[in-house]
Amino acid sequence: MQIEALKIYADVVRLRSFSRGAEANGVLQSAASQAVNSLERQLGVPLIDRSHRPFEVTPEGKLFYDGCRQIVDLYTELEATVRGVHKDVDAVVRVAAIFSVGLGDMSRYVQRFSESHPQARVQLEYLHPDRVYERVLEEAVDFGIVSFPQRRKELTVVPWRAEPMVLACLPGHRLAKRRAVAVRELDGEKFVAFDKGLAIRRQIDRLLRKHGAHVEVTMEFDNIEAIKRAVEVGAGVALLPEPTLARETALGTLAAARLEDSEFSRTLGIIHRRGKKFYPNTQDFLGLLLKNGKGHK
Fold this sequence. Notes:
Blueprint: H1 3-15, H2 18-24, H3 29-43, E1 48-49, E2 56-57, H4 59-83, H5 86-89, E3 92-98, H6 103-116, E4 121-127, H7 129-137, E5 143-147, E6 155-169, E7 180-181, E8 190-194, H8 199-210, E9 216-221, H9 224-232, E10 238-241, H10 246-251, E11 255-259, E12 265-273, H11 280-293
Parallel strand pairs: 3-4, 3-5, 7-11, 8-9
Antiparallel strand pairs: 1-2, 5-12, 6-10, 6-11, 6-12
Helix pairs in contact: 1-2, 1-3, 1-4, 2-3
């Protein structure tokens, strides 16, 4: 069996598509199908059940996929070592992050990394949380950054940092001059919320219920920038991570007050496929993030 065929099979399964698996290997879809068919003939068992749309991987196919990934990863690492081009293997560090991870923060990390690693670059994608998980599980990126990371058997979660949640409101709001407010004081307020499907929305709703604060949700968004703009035009107040309000509070367009009866924070975590091996550039960028994320409050 050739390494190329194993890699094609692994990519077809990982991406759940013959066409996308073929594209990832620079071959035609027909060539990808032939490679998988050839493997099935050699093994004497079906690896993929094509009677379903989308296709399903057979139990033997799942077992073979796990082995293929390990073999392909080991071969890639061995080839890089022999060629002496370890640093070139991951000349592009691929990262997927939620929209609200902090554009300014990430830009500074990328700049610092580029200064110390001029031969490499970081490719950042800002996506909806569900897409971040998909990109990580497909191994289309090296790792992802999400809030309130989910625990899944296919993933490794590395805690990154915790950001205190604060009240964001207009400077003229009745609570704007307060350094701290009780969550129950938000009862009856017009409220700009995160979309219902997001983990951070569920956490905020739970906090409000716990303190008996019934708010009137006026608008919902899937990202912090849109929420801040809505608060600025008077759509209501919001609960947001403190670091994301630095620019607005400095300019005086928004005021922020801590929550005096809660230590509610947004936790950010780094996720990657369990067992994934990182090459030097990727490992260095990950190390830079972790070093600067420790103890961040």
